Amino acid sequence: MKFPPLKIYALAYLLFLYAPILLLPLFAFNDGTIIAFPLKGFTTGWFAKMAENDTLRHALSNSLIIALTSSAGATILAVFAARASTRYRFRAKGSIMGLIMLPMVLPDILMGMSLLLVMLEVLRVNLSIGTVILGHVIISLPYAIAVLQTAFATLDQSLEEAAVDLGETRIGTFRLIVLPLVMPGIISAFLISFTISLDEFIVAFFLAGNQPTLPTYIFSQLRFPSSIPVIMALGTCLVAASIVLLSVAEFFRRRGLKRTGAKDTGGFL
Amino acid sequence: MTTQPMIAFREVHKYYGDYHALRGITAEIRPGEFFSLLGPSGCGKTTLLRTIAGFEDISSGAVLIDGRDMAGVPANKRPTNMVFQSYAIFPHLSVAQNVGFGLRRDTRSKGEKAKLVEEALEMVGLKGYGARAAHALSGGQRQRVALARALILKPKVLLLDEPLSALDRKIREQMQVELIKLQREVGITFVLVTHDQEEALVMSDRIAVMFEGEIAQLADPETLYRRPNSRRVADFIGVMNFLPATVTGERGDTITAEVAGLGALEVARSQVSLAPAGDQAAVGFRPETLTLLYEGQQAGDREAQGVIDEVVYYGDMTYYDVRLDGMERPVRISMRNVFGRPVLDVGTRTRVAWSPGALVLFR
Question: Any stretches that span the bilayer, and where are they (chain A) (predicted)?
């Protein structure tokens, strides 16, 4: 390296970014209730305790249900929106797309408050994981659309015309040509929506009623020092799951690139 | 010929909002013909091609294919297939899957379809390429896959949208010859869109030259080249020298025009074409209809004298810009570089032979 200060800065930056995450497994395997050095000894007891915790399991299953359904919903809606915005011209397209994308920059607390008001006073429905799913579809939709717009925009329109020219119907063309070619985009959109939903706190806190989700459960447990090592164990599991998920996503992305011979323009890893 | 045209355009108009893209196209394309739509970009040639395929609705008029009005017939139900400018090869499918794509709705057995695909690939010189990934092919190979894919359905008309423009010159010239051969072999009507006048001249039975949404001239290549019906067509196809002329007399079928440097010319009425309104009359010469005379050579019909202004050497040909005595601007003359004929230098005084039969009078 010709310029050490920059190298040092880069290392310090990475350390600042990832050191806190590295603390999670460190204390998850530490045989002691107090989160402090020096470490006491090695144990897997916290993981066992975590597995026995019914509320946690309930929160986890809630979160997974919410994340899976809301990201599926957001991705399907985003396919329609992205397709419409890249292929068709229609009245007030700019304003419509702008309004759809707005939740991206709108503070989540506004979304949470106004949705709570709508659910309770306008629609008069009971708060449940269903209301959280609705909220999460709205907040993850703009991200899913942003990803899919790129995927649809880079699709050569003459590919669709060629399929129609060769006798396919519009629907058949979409299924046989468009869908396979934007599939990497669909997977990315789904994963982004999934992660947004999984760690979303504010909207879930407002709309879940008495149902716990993973973030709201973790937050509620931080008040009790004795349950912190279990949270550490949970965090460790989440980190491991994220790494696996990203690796799988990257594997499919690269395989997709290889199959269509497109240039690699950078991905997650 | 009294046979029914394969394609007939009747007063076809197309508007994009206020933009008048096609302005009353009326033309007929004969069965089995290699037909080209030639013109500069934005002249409407691609739009016209896409009205045949069914990708563009027309604002008024009618497009008939094999006698049947295509109004309301969607692109997937028309007896036409298209080779796209970008080739539009499906990148996620193999070569064989690409070529066989149009057979998906066919009721024939798998084995029969596979045989058809193999035949189509053999026809375009890609035998044994079926299992390859389509995205791994070269430009020329993609072109062939696109052709095989379009021809496997045995369409009545094959539409080609600037199919050779993305290829290197060598491959392009090779493909031109192959396309002509292929067209003769399959006997299908080909309609080619191109902005390359040379390509159109080489490949077509007939050419429609288009400007600004209208057909300016529809003729066979030789007529188009020798007797352009307007100065604009003459300018677009090849090189033509224009010399200002003054019409001095008309008698029966003969018109007399005075050209500075060439003197008084008598031309037949069949040699008269359109000049833009208000423009001065002019006579037009192709560069190869004039000849430099070397020492001792005898003149043809007429002879003029001048000085060589510029020499452009092309290997097989040399272009000379010659300023004839009494003329303001030099004329371009092309000479074939036959063995033993020296290339002349700039500034050489030379004699030029020409024939009144080879010229066109624009008025």
Answer: 60-84, 96-120, 132-155, 176-208, 228-249
